[in-house]
Specification:
By secondary structure, this protein is α/β, with parallel strands linked by helices. Helices cover 45% and strands 11% of the residues. The chain is built from 16 helices and 14 strands. A ten-stranded parallel sheet has the order 5-7-8-10-12-13-14-1-4-6. Strands 2-3 form a two-stranded antiparallel ribbon. A hairpin with a 2-residue loop joins strand 2 (62-63) and strand 3. Helix 2 packs across helix 14 and helix 6 packs parallel to helix 7 (192-207). The radius of gyration is 22 Å and the shape is globular. It starts with 6 loop residues before the first helix and ends in a 14-residue tail after the last helix. The model has no long low-confidence stretch (mean pLDDT 96). The protein binds alpha-D-allopyranose and manganese (II) ion (2 copies).
Length: 429
């Protein structure tokens, strides 16, 4: 750590916040003393939490209407690693990056691994892109990839996923996330049963190439780019497929991949009990797969999700789940959005740890609805900013990361060496 932003630089900028922080944290500590909470245990849990950054979230995103690249945008995976290191040095909570192939293809994967290690970063799950054609691609994914009617195209998509596993092994990853854009726009276009069957045949092939210590995560999505039907449309479908594939296959919940008003925290609980919750893609949304910054629209939902994850019986497996951000930053500097989102996710986690679970259970048993609801509300309304700032201060990270980041003038400096390429980049997919 501190290869991208030096400790000195951070400590220098922390100085002006030390006084205020001491007072705020005193108050927080005093407040916690009045409850059953062990502050050191909470700190330890937060310190052990790791969130992966999406390589594709580091460049400016866009919508299908256009894209407005930011100043000093990274142009390749090496520059994205550098930007990720800035975030991790300031926040201390995101020590891994999740790459997307072929977007992050390089000539030498050992070099890539070493480069990331230099910044104290590792690689999280790898992602395969079969929802887009590459230049001069011979067999098109226009009508689907792993579920295409043509065996040739299905095989090509399958082989590509196997290639992602090979690349992932070289950079020390331990899993593959599969999201496909396959589906249809018109009733009658696709046979629901046949396409899901094709998916299973392709996935079984991919699964058989998975190393023993790897997992494969199945990401579902109800619509987009297909607007009438998608092949892996919901958590039930994803669960059935994961179950049939075997132990290493798990489900991935992307918060934006639900229809409005879906009770996502209940899906979390169901998948945990079914032993198939493998990972998250955090983001926020107002309407659909908006890929907005985590906690920017509905922080309460995020809190309720963590409240399920931190139930006593679930804590044992809490850190086995792969937590990741999956956002598209169309208007903001991605580094700032990712800092802010990381903080919001940690806020939700910290607040969920304040819920007295035993008390909640007894209130539920007594059918004390107001009591139970209030218990959650008190935790949700507790200001945990000073706790998170304290953790960062103790770890030599930034008390106020956005402030420190702005002082670095980082993107303007990078703009001198990074060309402002007008290449298309993922937007809201
Ligand atoms: C998609 C999915 C998936 C995919 C990403 C690519 O959420 O995780 O890898 O966007 O941009 O919507
Ligand atoms: Mn996703
Ligand atoms: Mn998405």
């Amino acid at each position: 750590m501190f290869e991208a932003v030096t400790k000195n630089r951070i400590e220098e900028n922390n100085k002006s916040f030390l006084d205020e922080q001491a007072r705020d944290y005193d108050y927080f500590q005093e407040k916690l003393l009045r409850t059953n909470n062990d502050i050191n245990l909470i700190k330890k849990k937060i310190n052990n939490f790791n969130l992966a950054l999406p390589s594709w979230g580091l460049g400016t995103g866009g919508t299908r209407f256009g894209r407005f690249p930011g100043i000093g945008d990274p142009n390749n995976i090496f520059q994205k690693i550098e930007d990720s290191a800035v975030i991790n040095d300031l926040m201390g909570a995101t020590n891994s990056v999740s790459p997307h192939f072929p977007w992050d293809n390089v000539d030498d994967y050992k070099e890539l691994k070493d480069y990331a290690n230099k910044f104290d970063l590792k690689f999280d799950l790898v992602n395969s892109n079969t929802f887009q054609d590459q230049t001069n691609q011979e067999h098109s994914y226009k009508f689907g990839s792993l579920t295409n009617n043509s065996k040739k195209i299905r095989d090509k998509a399958t082989e590509f996923n196997i290639e992602c596993i090979r690349k992932g092994k070289l950079i020390g990853s331990k899993g593959l996330t599969v999201w496909i854009g396959d589906g249809g726009n018109y009733p009658g276009q696709q046979n629901f049963s046949k396409s899901l069957n094709n998916y299973m045949v392709s996935m079984k092939d991919i699964y058989s190439n998975l190393p023993d210590d790897w997992k494969i995560l199945l990401e579902y999505k109800p619509y987009e780019p297909a607007f009438y039907s998608t092949v892996v449309n919901d958590w039930g479908t994803s669960y059935i497929c994961a179950k049939e594939l075997g132990q290493k296959a798990m489900c991935l919940i992307d918060l934006g991949h639900h229809l409005p008003n879906t009770n996502i925290e209940m899906i979390v609980s169901r998948l945990i009990d079914l032993k198939k919750l493998g990972g998250f893609h955090f983001n926020d949304s107002q309407y659909g797969d908006d890929d907005l910054d985590s906690g920017s629209i509905n922080p309460h939902q995020l809190f309720l999700i963590f409240n399920e994850l931190t139930e006593e019986k679930n804590m044992e497996n809490f850190n086995k789940i792969n937590y990741m951000i999956d956002q598209s930053h169309n208007l903001t500097d991605p580094i700032e959005s990712l800092i802010q989102s990381t903080n919001e996710i940690l806020v939700a986690y910290a607040k969920s740890l304040l819920v007295d679970k035993a008390k909640l259970e007894s209130l539920q048993n007594d059918n004390d609805i107001i009591g139970a609801s209030n218990l959650l509300k008190v935790a949700f309304n507790t200001d945990v900013y000073s706790l998170l700032k304290q953790i960062r201060l103790e770890n030599h990270n930034a008390i106020n990361p956005i402030f420190t980041y702005r002082k670095l003038n980082y993107k303007n400096e990078k703009a001198k060496e990074r060309k402002n390429l007008k290449t298309p980049s993922p937007g809201i997919i």
